[in-house]
Amino acid sequence: MCLGNDGSDQAAADAAEARRREDERVARIKAGASNINNAFAKYDDGFFDTRRQSYLDFANPQLDDQFKDATRELTLALARSGILNSSAKSRRFGDLQTSYDNQSRAVSDKANEYVNNTRSAIELAKSDLLSQNQAMADPALAANLAANRATTATAMPAYSPLNQVFASVTEGIATQADLERRGKARYQMSDLFGGGNSSKVVA
Amino acid sequence: MAAGTAEQNRSSRKAARARSSAKNSYYELNDALMDEAGTSQKTSQDTMEKPAFDEGVAEQYQKLLEGFTGNNRSVLPTTSSADGVPAIVQSENELRMAQAAATKLDLDKGLADLNSVSNYLTTKVNPQLNNSRATTGMTGGFMKGNAGVLGTELEAANALANNQLAQLMIAGGQTAMGYGLMGPTGGTPAPTGGYAPYPQRPYIPQGL
Predict the structure, then answer these.
(1) A5 within a domain of the structure (yes/no)
(2) Separation of alpha carbons B156 and A3, rounded Å
(3) What is the pTM (predicted TM-score) of this model?
(4) pLDDT tens, position by position, A63-95
(5) Nearest CB partner across the interface for A97, out of B74, B145, B146
(6) Within 13 Å and on the Cβ side, how many CA atoms surround A141?
(7) Which of A139, B98, B185, B198 could link A32 by a cystine bridge, Cβ 3.0 to 4.6 Å?
(8) Which segment of A88-97, B3-12, B95-104 scores lowest on mean pLDDT?
C-alpha cells in the first residue's frame, strides 16, 4: 500500500528551492559588488595625485608667465624711475615675491579642491551603484553602470585660466619716484641755502 | 494503536529536530552577516577614534604642506654687491626676501593646518563610511532574505510531523478496539473515535 509522501517532500522541495534562490541572489549581489569595486579600484591615491598634477601643469605655466612679465615690468618701471638700486626696489620685489607665493599656494589649494571634488563624485557614484546592485542583484548590469559612471566621473572639469594676478605690481612707482626725487631735491635745496640751519657764525 | 502513537511521536520529534536545525542555520548565518557588518562598521569607527584621527590629520597636514612648499618655482633676479648694488640696498634685498620666505612658510602651514581635517574626512573617513554603509545595507538585505527562507524551511519541518502511516495505524487500532469491545451476540461495534452516539430509546407515548 502506498501512502504517498504526505506533503512533506513537497514542502522540503519548496524550502530547498527557496534556499537555492536566496543563495543565488546573494551570490549575484556579491558578484555585482565585486564588479563595482573592481571598476573603482583604479581610483587610488596615485590616480588622484595624477589629477592634482594635471591641474598644476595647467595652472603653473600661466602663473610663471605672469610672474616673469610682472618681474620685467617692475624692473623696467623701477629703472625708468631711477630707483632700480634702492630700498624701494627691495620692498617692491619683496611684495612681488609674497604675491607670487600667495598665488602659488592658491594654485596648489585649487588643485587639492579639484581632487577632493573628483574623489567625492567618484565615491558618490560608487555608493549609488552599490545601492542599485543590492536592489536588482544583476552583476552584468552593475558592471556596465559602473564603467559608465566611472567614465563620467573622470571627465576633465572645466578649468578656468588664471586671472591677471600681478596687475598692480608697478602701481604707484611713478608717484614714489617723484616723492623720492622731491625728497632728494629738498636736501639739495637745503644744501644750497645752508641746510635750513638758523645758527650763525659770529666772527 | 500504540505503534501508531509511537510512529506519530517519532515524526513529531523529527519535525522538532528539523525546526531546530532550520532555526540554528538561520541564527548561524545571521550571526556571520552581523559580524561582517560589524567589522566594516568598526573599521569606520576606528577612523574617527582619537589616535587614528590625529595621525590621519597629521599625515594630511604634512602632505598639504609639502604640496604648498613644493609648488614654488619663482626665481627672482638675485643681486649682489659685485653688480654694483650698494651694500645697504643688498642688505635690504636680503631682508625683504627673507621676510617673504618666512611669510610664505607661515601661510603654507596655516592653510595646511586649516585644510588637514577636511582633507582627512574626504580622503579617508568618507570612503570608509561609504564602504561600511554599503556592506551594512548588503548584509541587511541578506538577513532579510534569510528570514524569508526560514519561513519555508519551518513549514517543511512542520510537514514532517504529518505521518499518514501513523494516523492510519492509530485509526486502525481504534477500529480494532471497537470490534474487540463488541458483544458476543452481535450488535453495533463501538465507534472508532469521536463522540459515542447517544443510545436511542424507544418512543413510549405517555398516558396510554
Answers:
(1) no
(2) 18
(3) 0.70
(4) 999 999 999 999 999 999 888 888 888 999 999
(5) B74
(6) 12
(7) A139
(8) B3-12
Rounded Cα distance, B43 and B134, in Å: 13
Domain membership flag for residue A193? no
Which residue type is seen at B184?
P
Per the listing, cell 598692480 goes with A168
Q: Cα–Cα distance between A149 and A120 in angstroms, integer? A: 13
List pLDDT tens digits, range B18-76: 999 999 999 999 999 999 999 999 999 998 998 899 999 999 999 999 999 988 776 77
Could you tell me how many CB contacts below 8 A there are between chain A and chain B?
152
Nearest by CB to B134, from A75, A96, A130: name it: A130
Mean pLDDT of B172-176: 78
pLDDT at position A22 over 70: yes
- Which residues from chain B sit within 8 angstroms of residue A109, using beta carbons? 68, 111, 115
Backbone angles phi, psi at A128, to 5 degrees: -60, -45
Residues of B in Cβ contact (< 8 Å) with A108: 67-68, 71
Distance CA A99, CA A101 (A): 5
Sorted by sequence, the CB contacts under 8 Å of residue B118 that are 6+ apart come out as A116
What per-residue confidence (pLDDT) applies to A132?
86
Taking CA atoms, what residue in B is nearest to A55? Answer: B71
In this prediction, residue A189 carries a pLDDT of: 47
A194: left (phi over 0), alpha (psi -120 to 50) or beta: left
CA B132 to chain centre: 11
Chain B environment of A53 (Cβ under 8 Å): none
Residue A142 located in a structural domain: yes
Report residue B190 CA to chain centroid gap. 60
Q: How many domains does chain A contain in total?
A: 1
CA atoms within 13 A on the CB side of A173: 25
**How much is the mean pLDDT over chain A?**
80
Q: Which domain holds residue A21?
A: 16-177
